[in-house]
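Chain X:
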Amino acid sequence: MHTLMKAFVRDERGVSAMEYAVLAGIVVLALGAMAVAFNDNASAMFANLFTQATTAQGKA
């Protein structure tokens, strides 16, 4: 049993999988934050475009 525990502690295959999981989590969080930020900017952009289009239509 002692030998099995030593082998388990020295085994580093799971460490690289854990690193990839943490990296994937960071990427997902970053993409989520960007989506939230972009959503606000996109809404403002289309509202501004609609306002300008209706204003320009009234002047023509």
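Chain Y:
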Amino acid sequence: MIVINLDVVMAKRKIGLTQLSEEVGITMANLSILKNNKAKAIRFSTLNEICRVLNCQPGDILEYTDDEYGGVLIEPDNGV
């Protein structure tokens, strides 16, 4: 699973959703989908603009985790 850490990078850069939306040229609704880790895809052109505005690398925003639950360990219920 790919986890989007846009909210973390935004907080470090002290930039809000409205300002980032305006500077990147993406709607607040679409940016919110990214920020809340609900996106299924992102265009390279959008990622490029986000990285340009936030002065970061794609790896600062995108993270791969080996499980489908976004890093949350879910134990199977063994009836115990």
